[in-house]
């Protein structure tokens, strides 16, 4: 139950919300909207953003293990296992035992995934074009540089 405030929330919040807070909140809101937009664009394929990312990593590095893929996507092994299960059900990937260790499963794209990836690339490019509409190249370069510096500042956190 929401309570009515006896004061202007911006006035009270002023000491607690800094310009840095506003910047970080803006970044978080941007990524949330980007995820939502991306998910919406992938619905036509019956895939999630995580599944798309998994396919992209597997295209780039065929035969990754589930553990390696989980590390790249920063997901728990159980979560990536579920994503791979779904991709397998859709006929997009297959698990194969590693030659040197039958307990390890490598994941490989099937031809259906290779056929689907260019269509998904078009969708991703359309989302990115929408995201970047009206932004000058030099502003994008400065923004990339700033984001890279922020990333370096946080290290491997």
TrEMBL record:
<keyword id="KW-0804">Transcription</keyword>
<dbReference type="InterPro" id="IPR000835">
    <property type="entry name" value="HTH_MarR-typ"/>
</dbReference>
<feature type="domain" description="HTH marR-type">
    <location>
        <begin position="20"/>
        <end position="152"/>
    </location>
</feature>
<dbReference type="GO" id="GO:0003677">
    <property type="term" value="F:DNA binding"/>
</dbReference>
<dbReference type="GO" id="GO:0003700">
    <property type="term" value="F:DNA-binding transcription factor activity"/>
</dbReference>
<keyword id="KW-0238">DNA-binding</keyword>
<dbReference type="InterPro" id="IPR036388">
    <property type="entry name" value="WH-like_DNA-bd_sf"/>
</dbReference>
<keyword id="KW-0805">Transcription regulation</keyword>
<dbReference type="InterPro" id="IPR036390">
    <property type="entry name" value="WH_DNA-bd_sf"/>
</dbReference>
<dbReference type="Pfam" id="PF12802">
    <property type="entry name" value="MarR_2"/>
</dbReference>
<protein>
    <submittedName>
        <fullName>MarR family transcriptional regulator</fullName>
    </submittedName>
</protein>
């Amino acid at each position: 139950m929401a309570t009515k405030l006896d004061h202007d929330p911006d006035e009270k919040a002023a000491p607690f919300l800094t310009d840095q807070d506003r910047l970080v909140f803006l970044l978080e809101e941007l990524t949330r909207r980007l995820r939502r937009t991306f998910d919406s664009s992938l619905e036509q394929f019956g895939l999630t953003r995580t599944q798309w990312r998994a396919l992209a990593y597997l295209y780039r590095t065929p035969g990754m293990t589930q553990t390696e893929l989980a590390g790249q996507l920063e997901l728990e092994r159980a979560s990536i296992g579920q994503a791979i299960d779904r991709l397998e059900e859709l006929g997009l990937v297959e698990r194969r035992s590693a030659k040197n260790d039958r307990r390890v499963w490598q994941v490989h794209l099937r031809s259906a995934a290779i056929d689907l990836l260019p269509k998904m690339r078009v969708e991703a490019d359309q989302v990115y074009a929408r995201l970047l509409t009206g932004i000058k190249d030099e502003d994008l370069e400065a923004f990339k540089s700033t984001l890279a510096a922020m990333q370096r500042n946080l290290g491997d956190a």
